[in-house]
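Assess this:
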Amino acid sequence: MKKYGAILALIVAVLSGLIAVFLANRWLSSRPENEPLVIRETVPSTEIVVAARDCEVGMLLSSDNLTLTEWPKASVPKGAFDNVAAVQGRVAVTRLKAGQPILSAELAAPGSGAGLVATIAKGKRAMAIRVDEVIGVGGFILPNSFVDVIAIDEKSGDKPTAHTLLERIEVLAIAQETYNEEGKPKVVKTVTLQVDPEQAKKLALQTHRGGVQLTLRNPLEEPQPEPKPQVVQAAKKGVPVLGARIRIPKAKPHSVEVIRRSKASEIEFENVESDKKI
């Protein structure tokens, strides 16, 4: 009896397989020829650290504003982190949007502190100057823009003079803001500039003795290098000296009309200061 039961089960299995093949062929033949066949593949992924919410410049990163998310393994950004603990305590130097991967280039060095101090580059200083609507270029000077500082010297009895004191100086903040999302002009009372120690001295001295004017410049435009002094040879010893080349114009002949009694004659000399006749 058991023998017949096994044979019957085998027959049922074969019939079920044949029916399944028939139905599959019928379904495939009923599909349009130009309809693509979608084959789903599993893309390898890994976890990286992203911002859990919007983070402003200078914000201290912690588990409250960080999270892990799945990311395609083949397109993980360079400098990304796979561990929240490796990012905790660091400070953002750029504005981060929610869901944006946290990259090492967007973080200040460990232990640099939070706030504006974290955005100051190594060897630089942050210096604030007072501005009004005119000096602040109508409020169009915003964080991360670049300006030239024009020095205005007001001398008693003479006309004021102006010259370029500093070129391509980065603006770190306007008032207490280090970021302006809309990019709209905003009139403020102070502008914080990033300068080196020598530039800070020049700017402090100028603001003490005279006025300054800020000019907004294209961030892609580099400062023009100062012209190098030309080397000229000394007349006798042949020792090179620094200085500008001076061209002496060639002296022109000079003529004098002489009248003796009723006769007039003309005498020509090499130049005005010479008594040598031609």
Q: What stands out?
A: The CA atoms of residues 252 and 271 lie 6 Å apart. The longest helix spans residues 2-30.
